[in-house]
Amino acid sequence: MKKIIAVLTFSVFLSLANASNPSLQHPFSSVDTSSDPLLKKAWHLKKINAYRAWKKTEGSKKTTLAVIDSGINYNHPEVAPNLKRKVSEWPSNGIDKDENGFIDDIIGWDFVKGTFLPFDRTGHGTFVAAIAAGAKDNGVGASGVCPKCSLMPLRFLNYEGLGDTEDAIKAIYYAAHERVAAINLSFAGEGYDQELFDAINTARQNDVVVVVSSGNDGENIEKQGIYPAKFKLPNQLTVAASTEEDELLDSSNWGHTSVHLAAPGDEIIGPWLDKWDTNSGTSFSAAVLTGAVGLVRSANPKLSADQVVNIIKATVSKIEAQAKKTATGGILDVAAAVDCATDKKLSCLKN
User: Fold this and answer.
1) Considering the entire predicted model, what is its pTM?
2) Beta carbons within 8 Å of 332's beta carbon, 6+ residues apart
3) Total count of domains within the chain
4) Which of 48, 72, 154, 321 is the most exposed place for a label (fewest CB within 10 A)?
């Protein structure tokens, strides 16, 4: 069975491999009206004009972002308040109450262990989720790009950061059938895979935007078989990583037709296991973009997945350093995207 290696870097904690998953805490949310102490270190929020976008929307609980990754620490205070909860499946009792084939899938699913508790043993999935939709004004850490969006953790990566393509495909189908707003795929593999393509195409048929990281080899993927980054589907956005100076991150893959835009991916602040730290890579630029998709879909829920993709691409900030690196030659501007989404004429698509 083919393996996919996640585009991530982390320390492997072998002692966690066989540890039991912690129980899902209840009540589900924490309340704190104070500010986020590390918000000033989240430079990417200012760079993509998130603060201006938040004046129109901070997201919606009805807008769910699926993170197909290493799971999520579902009890972490930065992500726990925003987890999508199936009231019909709570409490867990071994019965598939919604009859979707997954027993007790209260918050998502672990496709590695086949359980309803997709606990993160690497830190990567939690980090990605917090960047996309971490809680705001909860007195902890920083904030996600879409701080009032909901999160759905779907685990296919094990504690070493490796996963089977088959499990990733199952997770995509699960998210598509749950009709989430967007799917985050912060992983890459080599070689075209028709079944993976078909899964993302099914997501399109279910009106789901799929955000894909370009990979961390520092290469032009037009000359490489990097997938799912190179799939050509109208509901897919493939993203490179940019620095605070708007340069392409040295380790980021790029491609003037296959990679659509860049988003911040250098020294991004987030919760890493038991502490807050910074990490770099296209995994995190994908998370930033997924959060932006959440804001756009929250601002105008009537938009189709294809329309959202086109709006994101049409509203980038054109950057000379990105001119020959991506199809748009620009960096994500979520405020401009939200402005367009709330424009009844969608004027940005007519320019």
Assistant:
1) 0.95
2) 48, 239, 261, 262, 263, 264, 288, 289, 292, 312, 316, 317
3) 1
4) 321
